[in-house]
Amino acid sequence: MATSYNAIAGQNVERLAALSDGIFAVAMTLLVLDLRVPATELVHSEHDLWHALASLSPQIIMYMMSFMTLGIFWVGQQTQLNHLARSNRSFRRGCWPSFPLTASRCSPTG
User: Residue 2 contacts by C-beta under 8 Å, 6 or more apart in sequence?
Assistant: First the structure.
């Protein structure tokens, strides 16, 4: 008896976990693009450097908070996926709406 592709397609949860890992990795990487290096023309001494870095502290704090938030979501999703033995198309369709929401967290203001 031949098994149809639709009956076995996508039952491997590891593929869904790998896709999720990739999306979270891209989102976490994009967070750092919002940080701007202080202009080198304004930094003439160590004091100026510390002052320029201090002015970046709100952005750095927002970056760390956004990174930690994505990390919490990633751990939660991995925990859920670890409890599954297999997947089907309906489950994958249910997971797809969460991926754009993950990408929307790429901006600290998003």
Answer: none
